[in-house]
Amino acid sequence: MQPIYNIISMCGAVVIIYLGAKNVLGTGWVSWNIAAFTTVLSCFTKMALKSSKAAKLFNSVQKAQVSWARIKPLMKEYVEQDTDSTIDFSKAMGLTVSNLSLHIPGGAQILKNISFSATPGQIIGVTGPVACGKSMLSKTFIGEIPYEGSFRVGEQELASLSDYERSRLISYMGHQPELISDSIKENIRLGEQKDVLLYLQAVSFAKEVAQMPEGADTLVGNNGMRLSGGQQARTALARTLYNAQHILILDDPFSAVDRGTEQEIFENLRKLAADKVVILFSHRLYLFPKFDKVLFLYDGKGAYSTHAELMQENENYAELYQAQMAGGEHYEG
């Protein structure tokens, strides 16, 4: 809107010059001398400038109102989290899912009768064609998606867990993780005090961080804008491993790294998560032969077995895997 205000001001100045010139020449409604004319023109110019700034203020107020509407729901009084629980969090826990069904809220069914299980130390791969329900299933672990069936972490039904209990049992890295506007170190630690070097090494990021002038104290910028996409993803993965709970949910953690880095991170993940269950959602199947089990989602159903068995028994999985191997690492599936 600012250019419009400027145009209006310019038009006003043209009118003042035209009418003022007539007054100076004695053909207007009143007789002016040059001093009177320049005084009126100068006053109008200053008033137009002030009016233009006032218009910018109105625009700022409108933007502030929109921002406040977004922020206001978050401005709630902090309520101390209830940490009472009968769960023994020191014990390793497995995962058992039976006849799980997921629906779009108020809409169609996406997954039906999905069953699988995992024990500590296992890495489970979850894959399928585009829009098969991978992300929806991953968000079920953190309570964002209601479900039908049984979903047990250890001996506890997922739906019965409090927010505190869920946070002590499950760690989640989403497909588009967010970074805070702070250092690499603080993005990983989130206020804790353990050293981050082991976790930077685990995600093959330690050498790059060491070459930065400020090392792990390097600021990442707003939402990680000073880091590349691969560096952002590895920082987020290091944070998840640093704060790892019994069940690790990783949604496409290797999408922004090359095959060599993916292989290295996977081997480190196997060591760091030796007493945990890792559920890794991915459309890239390069490493799936090394996973303990694979859950293949297709047409709303799930096939759960080893990679080798799925290659023999599931034509759709075999076709997807072979297409990726033939098409190279950039094949999206």
From TrEMBL:
GO terms for molecular function: ATP binding; ATP hydrolysis activity; ATPase-coupled transmembrane transporter activity. It comes from the Bacteria. It holds the Pfam family ABC_tran. InterPro entries: AAA+_ATPase, ABC_transporter-like_ATP-bd, P-loop_NTPase, Type_1_exporter. The keyword Transmembrane helix applies. The keyword Manganese does not apply. Residues 95-324 form the ABC transporter domain. The chain crosses the membrane at residues 7-25. Keywords: ATP-binding, Membrane, Nucleotide-binding, Transmembrane, Transmembrane helix. This is ABC transporter related. It comes from Lachnoclostridium phytofermentans (strain ATCC 700394 / DSM 18823 / ISDg) (Clostridium phytofermentans). The lineage of its organism: Bacteria, Bacillati, Bacillota, Clostridia, Lachnospirales.
